Inverse folding.
């Protein structure tokens, strides 16, 4: 008798949960970036700009 075995998906092998909020350096950088965005120091990007950039990169490859 044969038994079918489903292929393992990559996400099934992930066992470690990343607790980013406990990484002080990461949180500090995230807070800096948010502050820059809120004050206008960093303008950020619109979804339209992101989509256009992705399409441009696709066309180059």
């Amino acid at each position: 008798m044969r038994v079918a075995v489903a292929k393992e998906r990559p996400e099934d092998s992930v066992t470690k949960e990343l607790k980013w909020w406990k990484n002080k350096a990461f949180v500090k950088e995230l807070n800096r970036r948010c502050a820059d965005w809120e004050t206008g120091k960093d303008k950020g990007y619109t979804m339209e700009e992101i989509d256009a950039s992705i399409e441009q990169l696709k066309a180059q490859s």
Remarks:
- The radius of gyration is 20 Å.
- The CA atoms of residues 6 and 12 lie 12 Å apart.
- The mean pLDDT is 85.
- The longest helix spans residues 24-39.
